């Protein structure tokens, strides 16, 4: 089973889409193992987006991610990173296909509702940025046998 970090960004929270987005993740079959609301500080933003800090667009990114509360969550499931990335769609909602989260709810590159880790390695690092180990809850779901076949649940 993979884990991935997801952030419902300030625009998603302000637009009251958090419940809808969480439902989509759960309806897909992903298991939520960590969840909290927080305000991203400039320091946390720089830690999360360390590879972008020196890029010209970073000040706008920082201003956006620190502009309001976010909901951070960790989802678990087979190929969770790729599944969430596919569900989100391309960064620019105006270019995202209907059926994707950004295609259904977004029209902007900047106000793109969600962050999802882009690799298993990035997910591990990002989860550590937002969650202490004791904030993640491992548990067996009674639905797991109905979400995917046993040979797929790696």
Please, could you describe this protein's structure?
31% of the residues are buried. The chain has a four-stranded antiparallel beta sheet. It has helices spanning 10-14, 18-28, 42-48, 58-65, 80-88, 101-105, 120-130, 144-147, and strands at residues 2-8, 31-39, 69-77, 114-116. The protein is of the alpha+beta class and 154 residues long. The chain is globular and about 45 Å long. It has a domain at 2-35 and 72-136: 2-Layer Sandwich (Alpha-Beta Plaits), CATH 3.30.70. The N and C termini lie close together (5 Å).
* CATH homologous superfamily grouping of the domain at 2-35 and 72-136: Nucleoside diphosphate kinase-like domain
Radius of gyration: 15 Å
Number of strands: 4
Beta-strand proportion:
15-25%
Mind describing the biggest β-sheet? Answer: 4 strands, antiparallel
Q: Stretches where pLDDT falls below 50 for ≥5 residues?
A: none
List the secondary-structure elements in sequence, H or E: EHHEHHEHHEHH
End-to-end CA span: 5 Å
Known CATH architecture of the domain at 2-35 and 72-136: 2-Layer Sandwich
- Average pLDDT reading: 96
Strand neighbour order, sheet with most strands: 2-3-1-4
The DSSP helix count reads 8
User: Which CATH class of the domain at 2-35 and 72-136 is shown?
Assistant: Alpha Beta
Helix content: 25-40%
Given the helix and strand composition, which structural class is it?
A: alpha+beta
| Shape field | globular
Please name the defining characteristics of this protein.
4-stranded antiparallel beta sheet, alpha+beta, 154 residues, 4 strands, 39% helix, Alpha-Beta Plaits
């Amino acid at each position: 089973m993979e884990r991935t970090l997801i952030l419902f960004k300030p625009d998603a929270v302000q637009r009251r889409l958090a419940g809808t987005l969480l439902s989509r993740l759960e309806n897909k079959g992903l298991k939520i193992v960590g969840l909290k609301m927080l305000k991203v500080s400039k320091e946390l933003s720089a830690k999360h987006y360390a590879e972008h800090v020196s890029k010209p667009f970073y000040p706008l990114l920082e201003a956006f991610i620190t502009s309001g509360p976010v909901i951070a969550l960790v989802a678990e499931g087979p190929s969770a990173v790729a599944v969430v990335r596919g569900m989100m769609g391309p960064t620019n909602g105006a270019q995202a296909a209907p059926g994707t989260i950004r295609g259904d709810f977004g029209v902007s590159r900047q106000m793109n509702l969600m962050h999802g880790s882009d690799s298993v390695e990035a997910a591990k690092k990002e989860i550590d940025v937002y969650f202490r180990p004791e904030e993640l809850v491992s548990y067996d779901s009674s639905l797991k046998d109905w979400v995917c076949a046993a040979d797929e649940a790696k």
